[in-house]
Amino acid sequence: MRFELLLKGILLGFSLAAPVGPIGLLCIQRTLNEGRLAGFVSGLGATVADMIYGCIAGFGITFIANFLTSQQQWLRLIGGVFICYLGLKIFASKPAEQAASDQSRGLFGAFLSTLFLMITNPITIAVFMTMFAGIGATNTNGNYLAVAALVLGISLGSTLWWLILCGGVSVFRAKLTPQRMRWINRIAGIVIVGFGVTALWSLKR
Question: What is the pTM of this model?
Answer without folding.
Answer: 0.75
